[in-house]
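Sequence in, structure out. Go.
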Amino acid sequence: MVRALLILLLIATTVQTIARDRFWRLDGKRVEAKLVGVEGKNVLLQDESGGTHEVPIADLSRHEQNIIKRWQKKHPKQTDTREKTDNKLRKLEIKAAEIINDIRNEKGLSRLTFDSKAADVARAHSRDMAERDYFSHRGKDGRTPFKRIRDGGVDYRAAAENIAINNSAGGAAKAWMNSKGHRTNILNGTYNRTGMGIWRKDGQLYLTQVFMD
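Output:
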């Protein structure tokens, strides 16, 4: 009898733990999501609609951080690969932002300061477009660029966004400069900060650049 009760208690505890592991704190709410990766100091969570969220690990509870540690132990190679890919993309983002800055400099405009928070926002949108197969300033969750920037904790008075799918950062910059609206954003002297976010899929680069003052 005692043994049966212990088994039932163990099963109940296991079920409760599994249930807790499925829920994460996103935007101040507890929602059901799946841990799909770890990139640097951020964890990648996929919600029920397929949307991907990049959340700072430091903002999560101790229980959630322990889940991440267990996941990393089970997926060491995947974690290492993500870190290498992450570093390559970060370098490419800096390079792409510098290409835009060189264009501005040639036109007598000041160079834009790279904003890491804005880059996180831009990168999340590039990744979302790549993984959910769409190309739009409005995300699948209905958010506009302005809402995404605010949600990312970035303050601004005015903002704009350029997006592109290209096989190189230079090619994307050239395409933007050949488009009146995108060119206007790049050569707008009001903006003094930028965030460049890039994601790679099937040999193509998904680029998002946000401009702010």
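Check: Residues 61 and 139 are 28 Å apart (CA to CA). Helices lie at 2-21, 62-74, 76-106, 116-132, 145-151, 169-177, 180-186.
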